[in-house]
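User: Some background: our group keeps a shared notebook of sequences we're curious about, and every so often someone picks one and asks for a predicted structure to add to the entry. Today it's my turn. The entry only has the sequence so far, pasted here. Could you supply the structure so I can complete it?
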Amino acid sequence: MTNNKKGLTALSPLLFFLAIYLATSIISGDFYSIPISVAFMLSSIYAVGIHSIERGLKKSVNLFSRGASAPNIMLMLWIFILAGAFANAAKTIGAVDATVNLMLSVLPDNLVLPGLFLATCFISLSIGTSVGTIVALVPIAAGLAQSTDTSVALMTAVVVGGAFFGDNLSFISDTTIAATSTQGCSMKDKFKVNFFITLPAAVIVLTIYTFLGADLHPATSTHGTNIIKVIPYLAVLATAIAGMNVMGVLVIGVALTGLIGILCGDVNLFGWFHAMGDGIMSMGELIIVTMLAGGMFEIVRAKGGIEFIIEKISARIHGKRGAETVIGFLVAAIDICTANNTVAIISVGNIARRISEQYGIDKRKAASMLDTCSCCMQGIIPYGAQMLMASGLAKVNPIDIMPYLYYPFALILCVAGAVAFRLPRRYSLP
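Assistant: Of course. Here's the predicted structure to add to the notebook entry:
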């Protein structure tokens, strides 16, 4: 068992980051007072420093570097690079404006917000990846915000919420696969439990968006939409829904922006290259933050921080409600430490299964709690891949998006209700 002093020392890099980033921002009254990249840099230096006391500087740096260059981190960086190239190239050739005008011409003014949320839910449910959905739709959402004179942060939050709705329910989502495999239940059964918990949250949010969007009026004309320029986004959505890997999807999207842009006379070959280059460079801070976070969290893991959290939380179980609450808190806490909901589910999966067996929790409910609670937390933390990607593409601070994340907050309330009132009854044994 990890003692308190050792456990708190292991978690101290994360606490150091929170103190620097959140406390400084709150005290100054300005969340732009310290860049998130600087907060992670200082926290990473601290993490390497405390680890080097025991293991030496060289081993500590090597451990940090291993975390920063882990396969899942490098895959994420590839996605960021391709997403940046695609987003800026699409914007340069006019694809964003064309897609925005098309959506505005199809949707009534007062249904732009709920329409965007429903479209995001459907797409994320179909492709099973919140990151892929955010890459495809956030630029469109940002364009819609400008055309309707609405907050960019609000529109971006609509996409983030819908992306996690689908990520949580999709049969092909990594989180679904991880949750069902660790708990030993079928995806279909886990979907049924999830649906009962998430549907009320989606209905609540749709109602909110309907009221918020009741007075929206486009600030620009929607006439003269060039349908050809919408093709890159349609291709991205179609190939993603077909199940293609997100990197392949983005490569196709990038290629189509060049082909269509050159044929339509919006860019020449070198203009297309520059557009992609500028898009890649715009992802610079996002890439740096991702690598710094990966290295820092690897040190937290190696020093026993995750095991410490699991031990402390699981020791306070009382009854079935307590067991379900602990499973939810465990996966949420580990997600805060790893900023990866799939990794959090895998990390907590075995102990969650032991808890559910010991306290008679239906394994389908346990799988649903793992998936749903990890998505709740991942959809809120400002340094998660999804929030960083969304903020980077929309060019807003992730902190600005957080107040508008109605879906993750509504989902937290629905999860709390499901635990408190033992819902859904069929999957919550007395």
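Suggested note for the entry: Residues 187-212 form the longest helix (26 residues). Residues 72-284 form one domain.
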